[in-house]
Specification:
It is a single chain. By secondary structure, this protein is an alpha+beta fold. 28% of the residues lie in helices and 29% in strands. The strands form six sheets. It has a six-stranded antiparallel sheet with strand order 9-8-7-6-10-11. Strands 12, 16, 19, 22, 23 and 25 form a six-stranded mixed sheet that branches. A six-stranded antiparallel sheet has the order 15-14-13-27-20-24. Strand 22 and strand 23 form a beta hairpin. The chain is elongated, with a radius of gyration of 26 Å.
Length: 507
Amino acid sequence: MASLDVPLAVIEPVTKNEEKFRRKLLWLSQLIKLIEDDSIHQYALQCIPIDDLTIKASQTLSTLKDDVCYCFEDCLVLELLQWFKYSFFSWVDAPECHRCGQPTESRGSIEPTQEESVWFAKTVENYYCSVCKTYTRFPRYNHPRKLLDTKKGRCGEWAICFTLICRALDLDARLIVDWTDHLWTETFSPSRQKWIHCDPCENVCDQPLLYEVGWKKKLSYVIAFSKDEAQDVTWRYSCEFAEVLRRRLMYQCRESFVLSWINYCTKRCRSNATAEKLDFLLKRQVSELSEFLTPPKPNKEELGGRTSGSVAWRLARREIDAEDVSVSYTFNLGDFEVQRRYFHIQYSCALDEYIRISAADRCRCKNWNTYVFDIKNIFRKVETDWKTAYLARTEGSPKGMMVWKFDFENSGLAIQKLRLNLLGTTFQDGKVKWTIKSSRGCFEKVFLNSVLRQTFSDFEGAATDLIITAELCEGIGPQAWQHAQLFRQPLDSKEFPFEVEIYFGKL
């Protein structure tokens, strides 16, 4: 057929990078055929708690306001993301030793066996256990049927399997491949008539600038693959069009070459489509391309770093800043506060903003970790479906901790009265533990109640410092990390769930 002719660009001399690009396009187009396999769909449906997810999606839809443009399919996708991340699939940085269960260390890659190759394991990572002196293989499977059994991996496995599950439920979904090494999913929203970004690794929806703005990724090509098309969707995920074009030059791939092969893949997908279907797809494609004419603007939900994978793994990939791990900030008194003998700080998780009310200029500062002395296994979570924000411990961590430190020794003042308003929230068996301590003033209080609203005036000696520690622990099952939270509040809340107010006297 003329519509399936090989692109003319292939006749011209091509660079090694162009040939590599072409092979990757064709391989991903073939992968989509497996994601569309009816027999695999039937197997996938046996793995999904369809009734439970349907009920939850219906309940979510019934609670939405009339002006919220969501339909049942949109709510079902949100429930799928939640279930997939916390109940079905598991993230693997490095596998446990298959013999003794101890942690392992990477020893590079090895060749896949014939059986592993059958399940599209192009790469097999090799890990060594120093305890029992054995090696553990970790095949990076790409076959969607196999992933329904293994239920583990990193972003590639997650995205392939999640896209398959969406398609098994007859949701219009496609696999998104970022050439800088990440994969996720897009689903088409019938109510909004547009493709919506969905990342199962992060349990986020409709935050397309998360990677460029939040993870600091230097994007070049982001390509969508579905049963109906291949499409360059880079422009949905970048607000720096000129920078993207500059980076593309480094790939030594002509834009005409890339476009011709993307179009070729699309024509193959649509070779048997009816005239009516072709008309629908063309109109939808034109509408999507019109979105890409203007660079998008990031919102505050897209500013955070990555949450999937260990901190070390994310740091190695430069998808989280080192200062996100340890900031070591200590509060001191400014001249205005010394004069007034008064200190007052508030934090809003909804706005992700500190306000130092007692400062002469009522100082404001963004980001939850800016004024923190120490952090361990904590991140800020925004639930777009429930329109709620809170701090929680990272998934899989037995404990999370935050420490705020105040040192007033150089001010010549001592603490006389302390007022605290600290809000924690617990579910199931989750626990929030607060410790309030003044090392120099021999003052220490421990509270296991999640909400701490109290005033203290019983400082002994010259209390010139203060340390507030919050510990999040316990909980039940794979969602235990959510069962102890700090500063949970609606995104439109005007309250401040963290508030410290201190009155001073002379030493």
